[in-house]
Structures are given as C-alpha cells and as structure tokens.
Amino acid sequence: MIFDRLTWIGLMIVALGWTLLLSAVQLTDLVASLSGRVMGGGSLPMAGIAECTILSGFGMAILGALQTGFGALNKFFDAVLARTAQPSTKTAPQPASRQRKVIERGWVKDRAYILFVDGSVEVETLLGRRLFPSLQDAQEFIA
Question: pLDDT digit string (tens) for 68-83?
Fold first, then answer.
C-alpha cells in the first residue's frame, strides 16, 4: 500500500509517542539531572504527553490515508467523466448527407427507440443515445 508523506509523518509521531511512554521514567531522570533540580513524580507528566503524541500521530496518519484514498477516487471519477465526454462511434450523429430513413418509432421497456431502414436501432439509454445493429440487440442490452 502506498502511503503519502502525511501518513508517514503521523506514523513517526506515533513511534515517538510510544518511545516517550516506554521511557518516561528515564526521561524524567535525564531532565532532572540536566537541569540540576530534583523533580517530583508529578512535575512532568510524561505519560500524558506521550498519550497525546500517540493520538495526534494516529490522527495525522488517518488523515493522510483518507487524503490518499479520496485522491484516488477523485482521479477515477475524473477519468470516467472524461471518457463519457468523448463522442463514441456508436453515438455519433449521422452526417446530413447520410440521413437514414426512419421506419418505426416505439418503446422498448421504458426506453424510446427509432428503427431505421437498414435494421439498426437507436435507443435512449441512461448514458445517452446508443446505436444497436438490431432491435433484439437493443432489447438484450436494456434487459
């Protein structure tokens, strides 16, 4: 699975939080020795700081994963919209010089259709008008 930068930063912050939580006693002793003061147990709440760091890191990691997932979903829908916007050879309108003669107009299920002299059928589908080689093909598509 591919993680983006925000997810990795969040996971690193989680690791830092766990390090703080597991070494809270040693860090308190280190801070006390570096500052030259004697620190009581309640003066530096390392466990609370570690818990907040872990939760913040998980929050960032989840936010990064959601951002990556929705970005991929957005790319998918953009590709679908771009593909449907391109004219298809099946739905392209006929040039004026090659207008076909209409034999019959009617309904297949709840869709309007036009039957031409050559036997082809143009049906209004959910994706727009579509040309089928025969009425039977159109009925199979709609059913």
Answer: 888 888 888 888 777 7
Residue type, 90: K
Q: What are the structure tokens assigned to 61, written together?
A: 């990691």
Count, residues in the chain: 143
> How are strands ordered across the β-sheet holding 102-108?
102-108, 111-116, 121-125, 128-132
Q: Which residue has the tokens 């929050």?
A: 59
CB 50 within 8 A of CB 21: yes
DSSP string, the chain: ----HHHHHHHHHHHHHHHHHHTHHHHHHHHHHHHT----TTSS-HHHHHHHHHHHHHHHHHHHHHHHHHHHHHHHHHHHHHHHHSPPTTTPPPPGGGPPPEEEEEEETTEEEEEETTS-EEEEETTEEEEESSHHHHHHHH-
Rounding to the nearest 10 degrees, give the CA dihedral for residues 100, 103, 105, 106: -130
Which tens digit of pLDDT belongs to each residue from 35-77? 777 665 556 677 888 899 999 999 999 998 888 888 888 888 8
